[in-house]
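F.,

This is the one I mentioned.
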């Protein structure tokens, strides 16, 4: 489905019934990265996914948009869907977008899941890397970006042994236009530091990280979970950056446990599931 939002068409999915879960995808992917979650959670929740501006089936505009603008698109989409409160799940750039969303619309956030992301702004080296990648997108297109990003998105073991996943991720990246990729890179380079926001996040928050995430390493997730008052941390074994896609069963189990404890009011429980380490930083 598509709807006009802030002057462009935004593509989204809306399935299931119950408390809304809103999933925000990573760079340079699309709502399709959440397929392993949608299939499971739409049985119990209302599940919303969207293609951020410049991604997948949403329109692209070449301009200096910010992640605050991306967050406003999410807000407008939720207004269109008559959703006033939701649990938000964002991975990597999706997490940066959620921090921008929380800064602007905290009253809409019942709970947060920050997966494989970080609170810090880019340093000068990071910004220079964004500029170089934007130039590569401009001169060589999404194929070159896929070659650069796949080793950062998936763990070495998955890249070696799961050619099916590698091809699915490549296909997702190739559906994006160079302009959308460039706008993302500018928006990420310009994002503000969110470390001072962490102590002000007043909702239950699950921080998830793949143990082999090289793009936003586990130390970044420890940092966030320690500073968010109701922060809980889950480390997912045998996963790199897109932990929800590489280890969907473990990711889904972590999310289910978090939701049943915090949205259905049963109290947070430690899981004994293999491949997942829960740690409540405040214990
Ligand atoms: C992402 O997965 O969204 C990106 O790797 C984030 C980043 O480059 O900082």
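My design for it:
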């Amino acid at each position: 489905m598509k709807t006009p939002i802030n002057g462009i068409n935004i593509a989204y999915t809306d399935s299931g019934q119950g408390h809304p879960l809103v999933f925000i995808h990573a760079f340079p992917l699309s709502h399709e990265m959440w397929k392993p979650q949608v299939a499971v959670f739409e049985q119990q929740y209302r599940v919303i996914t969207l293609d951020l501006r410049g991604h997948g089936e949403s329109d692209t505009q070449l301009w200096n948009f910010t992640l605050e603008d991306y967050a406003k698109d999410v807000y407008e989409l939720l207004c269109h869907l008559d959703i006033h409160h939701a649990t938000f799940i964002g991975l990597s750039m999706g997490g940066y977008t959620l921090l921008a969303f929380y800064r602007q619309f905290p009253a809409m956030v019942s709970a947060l899941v920050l997966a494989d992301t970080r609170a810090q702004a880019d340093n000068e080296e990071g910004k220079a890397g964004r500029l170089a990648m934007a130039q590569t997108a401009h001169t060589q297109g999404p194929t070159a970006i896929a070659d650069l990003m796949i080793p950062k998105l998936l763990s070495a073991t998955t890249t070696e042994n799961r050619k099916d996943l590698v091809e699915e991720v490549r296909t997702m990246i190739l559906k994006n236009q160079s302009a959308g990729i460039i706008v993302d890179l500018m928006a990420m380079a310009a994002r503000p530091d969110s470390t001072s926001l962490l102590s002000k996040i007043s909702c239950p928050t699950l921080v998830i990280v793949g143990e082999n995430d090289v793009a936003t390493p586990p130390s970044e997730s420890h940092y966030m979970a320690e500073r968010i008052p109701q922060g809980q941390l889950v480390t997912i074994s045998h996963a790199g950056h897109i932990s929800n896609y590489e280890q969907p069963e473990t990711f889904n189990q972590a999310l289910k446990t978090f939701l049943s404890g915090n949205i259905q009011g049963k109290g947070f429980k430690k899981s004994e599931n293999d491949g997942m380490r829960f740690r409540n930083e405040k214990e």
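The radius of gyration is 17 Å.

Talk soon.
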